Structure formats: C-alpha cells, structure tokens
Request: fold
Amino acid sequence: MRKNIVAGNWKMNKSFEEADDLVNDIMTKLEEKELGENTLMILCPPFPYLEMCQDYSNDSYFAIGAQNVNDNEKGAYTGEVSATMLSSMEIEYCIVGHSERRAYYGETDAMVARKVDRLLENDIRPIVCCGEVLEEREAGKQFEVVSRQIKDGLFHLDAEKFGQIIIAYEPVWAIGTGKTATPEQAQEIHAFIRNLIAEKYGKEVADNTSILYGGSCKPSNARELFANPDVDGGLIGGASLQADDFVNIALSF
Ligand code: 13P
Reply:
C-alpha cells in the first residue's frame, strides 16, 4: 500500500537557529498529536542544516531529504553536493527537478534522469517534481508537459528502481502564488500520471507510487486535496516553515 507523504521543502529560508526552533516546534506538536499510521513526514532543509535535522530525526518522527543533488558522482564541481555525500549522512530522500531548479538553473529532463540515477545508486529515494507553467495550462498542454517530464526523467528505470520514486505534481502557477489547483484539477492530472505509470510498469507499480501535490497547499485546503483517490499527500513550501501549519497539513488525511 502506498504511503501518504507530507514533505516540507524549506527552499532557501531560515537561519540555523530559526531552523533549529522549527524542528523543535514540529517535534513538540508531533508529541501532542500523532500522525496517521500510514503517514510519512519528510523535512527537506537547506544543505547546511541537514545534519542538525538528521540528529532530531533519530526519534523517527520524520525523515530527512535534501533539496537537490549533483548529477555527477564526484570530482571538481565546486559548490556541489553528491548523492554519495548525502548517503554517507544517511539522508533518505532528495527532491529532483523542482520547477525553480528548472527555471533558474537550467535543470533539464536529461539532468533529472541522471540525478535520479545517482540517487538510486546510493539508495536515496528521489522526490521527482513535474508540472506545467501558466501559459501551458492556458493552452491545455499540461498533460503533454507532465507526460514528457515523467517519461524523459524516469522511464529509463526498470520497474524495481521505479518503485523507489515519489512523484510531486507542482503546477508552477500555483507555487508561492496563493493560487491552488482545485481538488478536481489535482485529481485529474494525478490520475493521468498514475495511468502513465501503469501503462509503462503495470498497475501494481502504479498503485504503489505516492503522487504528491504541491503549490500553495495549506491547512485550509489540504484536506480536500488529499481526499482525492490519487492525491497521496503534498510537497509543501511556504506552509512548511510554520510548525503549526505543517503539522496540521500532515494531519489532514
Ligand atoms: P508553496 O507551498 O510555497 O506554494 O511551494 C510549493 C513548492 O514549490 C514545494 O516544493
């Protein structure tokens, strides 16, 4: 059975001290209210805070993910972080192909594919983002765009490896804009993605893949989004920076 997942993408926010406070607050809230048995919480802090968050996660309230990884194994790539490094810190998850990386750092589907390979070689589960921009949605091209991102980024994998993938559908027009996809829009494209996976890998693999929604997800809309049969949780930006909001979202299944 696939997991319900709520992952917090902190992006480039918070000082070390603020980050430490946030994790502490999340832990306190999780002591008061337990997550559902099938719910997994993942925190994705900036690289410099991974170890601090990892230390807290030993109590197994949540798992830790990175926000990015380099597509090479190692070497002269100043400022970059490899999958081997993340693995040596026992980081279990990593976001790949976020629309901000695609837009500002030229991350292509081919790079996404290589990053996914590096992560899987190191037993780190990729959280692979896809989603269309506003003009693509307005032109009715969202299915075409998402299909290309998924196929070119992931369909080189065999079924066993694909089984490690978590997908996050994040319509770019909904990220940080306060404009959320309607539950119907989310369900429609999540079902489309699951169907793509089923066509390639079969129904069992598709049914076991968690597909998260991302884009202005908050406590007030999480419940109706997550109530859809193909929406298995969220990749949360802004609302993951507030312990109350983030935990409330994780309690929305
Ligand atoms: P917001 O929740 O701030 O819209 O960001 C979503 C996102 O990009 C998560 O990766």
Observations:
- The radius of gyration is 17 Å.
- The chain has a mean pLDDT of 97.
- The longest strand covers residues 4-9.
